[in-house]
């Protein structure tokens, strides 16, 4: 009955059954406590899972590795990395052997809290104890490095996975690509994507987002559009992030036509167009000298109930001046001042003011 509660994540019922067993004098064992702790873990109730593990001591039940794993996994879900590490120490103190699940939960807890150094330390300990590493543990460590802005370490781990014959998945690659993007190593990020394609690993939304973001940073607008097309071929729905990054890539290359097409696509697929999307599109039109279109986009932005940012205001004022509409440019400048928005550094508008 307790095992059934574990599978259904019915933690309250599992705790009730455990209490009933104690009341009736039914013998309890590690399997029972492991099932109850696991039910609490599935409910992301780390405090209760720790409590169940603690109860084994005063009830005279020898907890096993599975019991500790359930508690460690609950701590991981609750982002309680110090507790996960303490459980690992306690497990060794009871002369139990930690397995790949114990270490995986502890490393994932460190990843959630951006403790990349602790994650790498656990991975090294894991290898030192001859515990076989797996994709989950390595990917979590790579993600921890990504969140800690440790691109070199993330790439090193990705390469090491090949050497120790651990399969790399979409999450491993995506975390490494994002780490490269954050470190402005955009060519390397695209190289990692190439490796992923060569291995025949199916790409997901997060992979495409990382790849398109790398294209945005390098101004590779054509490649960004190709990836956007590939997403459609893979029947992966584009997100606000991927579409905005594609528009930003077009802006850097001063390619206003594809930027407008992507913005229009956002309406067709019912994706919310935010200020960033409008701002990047207006920026691409500014670079392309499309003054009338800037005015139209500003009108659309306001119609969507959005407030322009300083980049939009600046482009719109330049557009007004280029079309000999000084009064409208002055009106925008007055609006900026009324909203107390500071002008961009280096912007000089003597012909307006």
TrEMBL record:
Kinase among keywords: no
One family name in Pfam for this protein: PPR
Assigned keywords, A-Z: Repeat
KW Repeat (keyword) present: yes
UniProt xrefs under PANTHER family: PENTATRICOPEPTIDE REPEAT-CONTAINING PROTEIN GUN1, CHLOROPLASTIC (PTHR47936:SF1), PPR_LONG DOMAIN-CONTAINING PROTEIN (PTHR47936)
Organism for this UniProt entry: Alexandrium monilatum
PROSITE patterns: PPR
Name of the protein: Pentacotripeptide-repeat region of PRORP domain-containing protein
Start-end of each PPR repeat: 169-203, 274-308
Annotated signal peptide: none
């Amino acid at each position: 009955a307790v095992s059934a509660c574990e599978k259904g994540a019915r933690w309250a019922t599992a705790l009730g059954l455990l209490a009933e067993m104690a009341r009736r004098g039914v013998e309890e064992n590690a399997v029972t406590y492991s099932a109850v702790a696991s039910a609490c873990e599935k409910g992301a109730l780390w405090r209760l899972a720790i409590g169940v593990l603690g109860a084994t001591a005063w009830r005279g039940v020898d907890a096993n590795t599975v019991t500790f794993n359930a508690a460690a996994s609950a701590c991981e879900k609750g982002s309680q990395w110090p507790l996960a590490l303490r459980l690992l120490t306690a497990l060794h103190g009871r002369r139990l052997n930690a397995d790949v699940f114990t270490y995986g939960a502890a490393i994932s807890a460190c990843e959630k809290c951006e403790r990349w150094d602790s994650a790498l330390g656990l991975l090294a300990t894991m290898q030192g104890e001859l515990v076989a590493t797996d994709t989950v543990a390595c990917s979590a460590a790579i993600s921890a490095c990504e969140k800690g802005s440790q691109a070199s370490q993330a790439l090193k781990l990705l390469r090491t996975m090949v050497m120790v014959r651990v399969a790399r998945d979409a999450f491993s690659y995506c975390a490494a690509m994002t780490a490269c993007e954050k470190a402005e190593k955009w060519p390397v990020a695209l190289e990692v994507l190439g490796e992923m394609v060569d291995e025949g690993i199916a790409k997901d939304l997060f992979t495409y987002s990382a790849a398109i973001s790398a294209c945005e940073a390098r101004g590779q607008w054509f490649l960004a559009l190709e990836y956007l097309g590939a997403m459609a071929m893979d029947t992966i729905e584009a997100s606000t992030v991927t579409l905005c990054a594609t528009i930003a890539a077009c802006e850097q290359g001063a390619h206003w036509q594809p930027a407008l097409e992507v913005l229009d696509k956002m309406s067709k697929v019912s994706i919310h167009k935010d200020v960033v999307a409008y701002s990047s599109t207006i920026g691409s039109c500014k670079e392309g000298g499309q003054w009338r279109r800037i005015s139209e986009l500003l009108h659309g932005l306001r119609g969507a109930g959005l407030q322009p940012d300083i980049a939009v205001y600046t482009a719109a004022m330049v557009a007004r001046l280029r079309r000999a509409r000084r009064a409208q440019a002055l009106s925008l400048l007055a609006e900026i001042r009324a909203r107390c928005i500071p002008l961009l550094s280096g912007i000089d508008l003597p012909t307006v003011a």
